[in-house]
Amino acid sequence: MTRLLVDRLTVRLPRGADRSNAIENVSLSVASGEILCVVGESGSGKSVTASAVMGLLAPGLAIAGGGMALSGEDLCALSPEAWRGVRGRRIAMVFQEPMTALNPLMNVGAQIGEMWRVHLGLDAAESRSRALAALREVNLPDPEGALRAFPHELSGGQRQRVMIAMALALEPEVLICDEPTTALDVTTQAQVLALIKDLQKRHGTAVLFITHDFGVVAEIADRVAVMRLGHVVEEGTAREVLTNPQHDYTRALLAAVPGLRAPEPRELSPDTVLEVRGLTKTYASRGLFRRRKPVRALDGVSMTLQRGSTLAVVGESGSGKSTLARCVVGLLGTDGGQVVIGGAPLPTNRRDAAQLVQMVFQDPYASLNPRRRVGAQVAQGPIAIGVPAAAAMAEARRLFTMVGLDAEAVDRFPHEFSGGQRQRIGIARALAMKPEVLVADEPVSALDVSVQAQVLALLRDLQDRLGLSILFITHDLRVAAQLCDVVAVMRNGVVEEAGPIQSVFAAPRSDYTRSLIEAIPGRALFSA
Amino acid sequence: MRVLRLALWRLAASLPTLLLILAGMFLLLQLAPGDTVDALMAQMGGGDAALAEDLRRFYGLDVGIAAQLWNYLMRLATLDLGFSAIYGKPVATVILERLPPTILLMAASLSFAFFFGLVLGVIAARRVNKWPDTLISTLGLIFYATPSFWFGLMAIVLFSVYLQWLPAGGFGDITQSYTGIAAVLDIAQHLVLPTFTLGLIFLAIYLRIMRASMLEVLSLDFVRTARAKGLSETRVVTKHVLRNAMLPMVTLIGLQAGTMLGGSVVVESVFALPGLGRLAYESVVQRDLNTLLGIVFVSALLVITINFLVDILYARLDPRIVSGS
Amino acid sequence: MTGPNRREMLLLGAAAMIPTSLAAQETPRRGGVLTVHFSTEQRILNPSLQASTGVYIVGGKMQEALVDLDAQGNPVGVLAESWESAPDGLTHVFRLRRGVTWHDGKPFTSADVAFSAMEMWKKILNYGTTMQQFLTEVQTPDPHTAIFKYERPMPQGLLLRGLPDLGYVSPKHIFETGDIRQNPANNAPIGTGPFKFVQYERGQHIIAERNPNYWRENMPYLDRIIWRVVGDRAAAAAQMESGQLLFSPYSALSIADMQRLGRDPRFEATTRGNEGNVRTNTLEFNFRNPILADVRVRKAIAHSLNVPFFIENFLGPFAKPGTGPIPSVSTDYYPTSPMPQYGYDVAAANRLLDEAGHRRGAGGVRFNLRLNPAPWGEDIALWSTFIQQSLQQVGIRVEIVRLDAAGFLRTVYNDWNFDLATGWHQYRSDPAVSTTVWYRSGSPRGAPWTNQWGWTDPTIDTIIDNAATEVDPVKRKALYADFVQRAQTELPLWMPIEQIFVSVFNRRIRNAGNNPRWASSSWHDTWLAS
Amino acid sequence: MRVLKAYARSPAALIGSAILLALLVMGLGASWFYPNDPLGLAGRPLQWPGANPRFPLGTDPSGRDIAAQLFHGARISLLIGFVATSIAVVIGIAIGAVAGFYGGAIDTALMRLTEAFQTVPNFLLLLVLVAVFGSTLQTVTIAIGVVSWPPVARLTRAEFLSLRTREFVQACRIQGLGDVHLILREVLPNALPPVIVYASVVMAVAILLESALAFLQLSDPNVPSWGNLIGLGRSVLRTEWYVSAIPGFAILLTILGVSLVGQGLNDALNPRLAGGR
């Protein structure tokens, strides 16, 4: 039977927003034991839909039309009180950010226990034991420990499990998952997805699953609804939508999803432009009250990058890949080993190093100074090494056109650009120094798939035109597969496996690599 | 045990600071016109040059500055604060006599400011931009803008002179020798006005901070989670928001310990309280180096202690601190 | 702040007659607590070591001197019953009172007198060191006889009038061991007086209680005396009104409050009982500043100050215009001949300044001066402001340099770093004591309240010296007339205002102010009407 | 521009600006409203407000026109507030920036110094400074500035600590730009807003400190400061309380104005701190 019915729902945005309605005439329905995936890029209104259903619309947003029904009961008719009774008890929700979604000052047991205490009025002991059971069900290692633990003591995956345990505590009819795995590593993602699917099967819960990742969709969806700018543009069973999309937008999205087909092997130039020799880096971080044991971020890492080629360093969080990137560009000093560029060790002098290696950063918003014109930020490097200002600005304009921006945009401020455009500016800034090596640290992971594809295309194009040598840091094998020649898989500060991407994909030597590849969502579909 | 070790560690860590302060103060005061003997002469109403010589010898002012500083620090090493020129007894004793009123005053003002700051802040945040918020915020601004000594004077005029509800000053009525509960009440009565006077500005500050951090915490994800769990608004605030929102306030207490001690100088002189603040003022005027340095030393210790307690409190409130992440 | 009551000593009782108070007829009532305003805490309370009213007001109730002054201001025996002096003035014999015991029960003997005289008055006590400079020894043939031996003649009159203030006796058995200055008894006096020390809470109060074994029969009347430390004038006034304080000595209240309370039937604000404590406000010139070295400028400055106006509007009934270094109350030495005066006359002032060659410059300003006011006494602050205001009218811009006590003394009397200074001159009944030093040249640098003006005048020096050694009262008076004449003509400093300290009593206090140094005296006969 | 709009939108800012403007007019126009020296003898002392039409606000214990002192006092208070604040902010930013940007030993040393200054009760330090260097307008102002910088330094340091690791700063490092450029062009502009907002607090405190000093008779007696007036009024508090009340109220208004402007700036510059509005 239909658990959740959203009928021609329209939510109005506050005046002054980019469009009048967050969502318009959105109609969805989820039956018990069914998973409906709502797919869309940022701004598609998928999250608004979710919070509307929870009755937790952000201040300023208001339901302008349509309705929602839970097992036939009209939600919009509910008083705030009544809705609170429904919330958590009959409709539960899992949020995207496991890091911030839990109260940092309250231990896990208490937070889960609250469900029973508040809704069923059980006493502390009883709700505690139930919480323990719940934690067992989401198979957390050491549930007793977890009960007493505080959120910051758990990993992202574990927190998400806690969230799920909490959400399912009272056997809700409907579970809403808002990008629950986006912030997780692939392997963890795979586990959490499996967990959700499994629980949902056992409890026959109706799940409204919100994601931007077709891979995830392919993994768990029974039915799919594609949203764009507040409208549902296409809906159907997972199979139909994924294999035979009707709407152009859906097609575009699917096309943008990076496949696992490794590119044809290229002839690599024999000369090594970058060589990393036995790099070692240890962080000795210290807490306010007691010293913590030092962390080995890099443990004798070695790799080489051939001129004009791309070396992808793939790893999950904590693998040390970002540390590596920062050591290579000289932002971090190393404890051992050395970085050799063009035959000579990386000069300590900032100015000299600048002309050898440049970097493109992950966060398009943090990587530009909000208070300065983008042109100036691109030109300042060359000016610093003595290029006359006028020439530097002219070069900046040229680069802007090269990275696909309007040359006149140099006079604008960062906030006037979209994320993708900023990433292009970042690339232009790096290229302005005409470096031997370009280090790209997760350059696309913060972007929507479509934009992602464009930026990757740009990089590939630039490499062809300028013969760039790129050290490409990423957590996403699929992205790596797009443009790299050689891949190095890192884990806990050591290189697990390295080699031509084709061979690594075809026959991974280390189990870890294999598990990484297997964890890729929608692999079955997209590697086909 | 661990706390004690921490305390010692903290003290050791702040030794350089202490040394810096004392030496700095000492040298600074050497530049002051006139010494304690001049002050004493003024008090005695004269005496001949020979007497002055004699007194300078008595107060150990006849040796060079470097020597004096050295002597002082050496004595300090043995925790001897020296001999007070004004009071003719060991500085330690003098300060101990004067410490209680100040500590009492600070404690009272702090609790007053903290409690009401908290409550008002929460109310304002819950009714943000509605009339209670506007009222409270305005009051806060006015409290903040009121010069404490002026408020004190006006309070005296109103409550002591016209209404005759509260004593105009002093730390207790000694014409009656109260004992037990009566004495406590007596002192309490004498501390009412000073507490308000000193606490007012801090109340205003805490209120502002609390309001802001409440609003900030209310906008965080885990609050949304709590709501999604179907918790009542009250429970969301009391169980989830409050504790998080208190953290900035707690930090502030530590940062402002020094300021508060400074404020008590003025308040004590307005209400004729026999506290550390007034002692400090007197010893500056009387050029009583030992006493002044002693006070600086003690108040520094006080500030350090308060900060230490605040850290402990903070750690208790926020599990993340202890594990140092 | 150092209040008014710092610096007055009474070496000779003022002969001013005391109106015998009607209270005398009433029968004294026993009991009661007298609460006294204690405006500035003292470093010590022992009057044998520090001579200042701040000490007497407390210590004077617990310790006693050999002699005190009676209502008429004549010496009367206290610990000494009688005395005789050798004609040569080198030997003075004191017969001590018998059966007197210290508060700790030990008997009072001549040994105590000898010890106090030799170890305290002669060595430590300010002014004592000068007065007893030539005291060679104190012989104690028996426990009740003390014989003072001097190497130079000591006039009996001066000695007897000195001892009420400089003759307080401390117990030998307490002080003979250890450093006298650091002796705990200095802050917890042990004496023979009518009141026993009970407690001293720094910054709060001092408590003394009735001494049951006091040698005067059935005295004292009061059960307790409590001195409350109240630094703030306004607060003190409030406590007078609320009855928390019954007596505020030595002009410790604000002028406004003293006048207000004086009009209140519950209180009496009077100079009675302070006849000895006369002071004059000064205006001191620094001759190292060439401008001020010119007498015309000094006179011009004097002419431009409207003293009567100032007194009327700022000081009220407790002050009157001064005529010179010797105040009018000092009938023994007050000159009968007219003295040069400098009335309010702006025209004259301007003329003098023009003559002196100081024409008005930009903004009508002739020149700038710094004025250092002493930090004690509300009247000094008002006076300095008034000087600033008045001199502006004649084109002298005055900058007030505000310093605390230590800073003031050091800057003015040691560093000579001032143009004008203003404070108090204490007249101690004989010009030779603490008045002529303001004019006599050759005072060691750094000695406060002496001639540090960089002004030397042989004429006045000789007059001063002659007067000091002149034995014939008539001639002496004449010499001091010359002295005043000279002082007022040369005008090295100016003393335009005369003030007597004011006591504010609650009228419940009986026998209040019944001797010229009442506030400092032992209060054995003081009692409280219900 | 955006900032200006946001500023103009907050009512707090408008009221505050209005008050400060009024004070500014009072201060600057003082010599025009009251050409005579405000410290000059105007008439009988202690005339109640309104008692004498010549003195709408009465006269103080030295027979000076309170209204005149109020106007001229506005100048003094604003001057002291402004100059002292500038001093504090400059020192604070300099120390905070260097400490926060370089960290390590330099940071430790500078923070020790800051701690030292914060550990001594600031008013106590102020007393000593004034006792030592005298109480002229200049010394008092400088002294106030000297005791007020530590919070600014801490704030600046905190900002720098968080900003120096931002990707755009790292990008500039990689571009080979010098520290001076990084500090002045990249970090400082982004660190400034909260500091500017805090400056209003410093100014308020500075004015309060001066008045407290004057109240203890430790400020410059040659200038018509409000605090001096309050201090004078203290001795006649029980009868002529208006002498203290009037200038006290003026101070209250000033601080109110300053902190309102501060709040406005806060709302405009960093909305997050303004409390999620």
UniProtKB/TrEMBL annotation, chain A:
<keyword id="KW-0813">Transport</keyword>
<dbReference type="GO" id="GO:0016887">
    <property type="term" value="F:ATP hydrolysis activity"/>
</dbReference>
<dbReference type="GO" id="GO:0055085">
    <property type="term" value="P:transmembrane transport"/>
</dbReference>
<protein>
    <submittedName>
        <fullName>ABC transporter ATP-binding protein</fullName>
    </submittedName>
</protein>
<dbReference type="Pfam" id="PF00005">
    <property type="entry name" value="ABC_tran"/>
</dbReference>
<dbReference type="InterPro" id="IPR013563">
    <property type="entry name" value="Oligopep_ABC_C"/>
</dbReference>
<keyword id="KW-0547">Nucleotide-binding</keyword>
<dbReference type="InterPro" id="IPR017871">
    <property type="entry name" value="ABC_transporter-like_CS"/>
</dbReference>
<feature type="domain" description="ABC transporter">
    <location>
        <begin position="274"/>
        <end position="517"/>
    </location>
</feature>
<dbReference type="Pfam" id="PF08352">
    <property type="entry name" value="oligo_HPY"/>
</dbReference>
<comment type="similarity">
    <text>Belongs to the ABC transporter superfamily.</text>
</comment>
<feature type="domain" description="ABC transporter">
    <location>
        <begin position="4"/>
        <end position="254"/>
    </location>
</feature>
Automatic annotation (TrEMBL), chain B:
<feature type="transmembrane region" description="Helical">
    <location>
        <begin position="135"/>
        <end position="163"/>
    </location>
</feature>
<feature type="transmembrane region" description="Helical">
    <location>
        <begin position="249"/>
        <end position="272"/>
    </location>
</feature>
<protein>
    <submittedName>
        <fullName>ABC transporter permease</fullName>
    </submittedName>
</protein>
<comment type="similarity">
    <text>Belongs to the binding-protein-dependent transport system permease family.</text>
</comment>
<dbReference type="InterPro" id="IPR000515">
    <property type="entry name" value="MetI-like"/>
</dbReference>
<dbReference type="InterPro" id="IPR035906">
    <property type="entry name" value="MetI-like_sf"/>
</dbReference>
<feature type="transmembrane region" description="Helical">
    <location>
        <begin position="187"/>
        <end position="207"/>
    </location>
</feature>
<feature type="transmembrane region" description="Helical">
    <location>
        <begin position="103"/>
        <end position="123"/>
    </location>
</feature>
<dbReference type="GO" id="GO:0055085">
    <property type="term" value="P:transmembrane transport"/>
</dbReference>
<feature type="transmembrane region" description="Helical">
    <location>
        <begin position="292"/>
        <end position="315"/>
    </location>
</feature>
<feature type="domain" description="ABC transmembrane type-1">
    <location>
        <begin position="99"/>
        <end position="314"/>
    </location>
</feature>
<keyword id="KW-1133">Transmembrane helix</keyword>
TrEMBL record, chain C:
<keyword id="KW-0732">Signal</keyword>
<dbReference type="GO" id="GO:1904680">
    <property type="term" value="F:peptide transmembrane transporter activity"/>
</dbReference>
<dbReference type="GO" id="GO:0043190">
    <property type="term" value="C:ATP-binding cassette (ABC) transporter complex"/>
</dbReference>
<comment type="similarity">
    <text>Belongs to the bacterial solute-binding protein 5 family.</text>
</comment>
<dbReference type="InterPro" id="IPR030678">
    <property type="entry name" value="Peptide/Ni-bd"/>
</dbReference>
<feature type="domain" description="Solute-binding protein family 5">
    <location>
        <begin position="75"/>
        <end position="441"/>
    </location>
</feature>
<dbReference type="GO" id="GO:0030288">
    <property type="term" value="C:outer membrane-bounded periplasmic space"/>
</dbReference>
<protein>
    <submittedName>
        <fullName>Peptide ABC transporter substrate-binding protein</fullName>
    </submittedName>
</protein>
<dbReference type="InterPro" id="IPR000914">
    <property type="entry name" value="SBP_5_dom"/>
</dbReference>
<dbReference type="Pfam" id="PF00496">
    <property type="entry name" value="SBP_bac_5"/>
</dbReference>
<dbReference type="InterPro" id="IPR039424">
    <property type="entry name" value="SBP_5"/>
</dbReference>
<dbReference type="GO" id="GO:0015833">
    <property type="term" value="P:peptide transport"/>
</dbReference>
Automatic annotation (TrEMBL), chain D:
<feature type="transmembrane region" description="Helical">
    <location>
        <begin position="123"/>
        <end position="147"/>
    </location>
</feature>
<feature type="transmembrane region" description="Helical">
    <location>
        <begin position="195"/>
        <end position="218"/>
    </location>
</feature>
<dbReference type="GO" id="GO:0005886">
    <property type="term" value="C:plasma membrane"/>
</dbReference>
<feature type="domain" description="ABC transmembrane type-1">
    <location>
        <begin position="74"/>
        <end position="262"/>
    </location>
</feature>
<dbReference type="GO" id="GO:0055085">
    <property type="term" value="P:transmembrane transport"/>
</dbReference>
<keyword id="KW-1003">Cell membrane</keyword>
<dbReference type="GO" id="GO:0015833">
    <property type="term" value="P:peptide transport"/>
</dbReference>
<keyword id="KW-1133">Transmembrane helix</keyword>
<feature type="transmembrane region" description="Helical">
    <location>
        <begin position="239"/>
        <end position="261"/>
    </location>
</feature>
<keyword id="KW-0472">Membrane</keyword>
<keyword id="KW-0571">Peptide transport</keyword>
<keyword id="KW-0653">Protein transport</keyword>
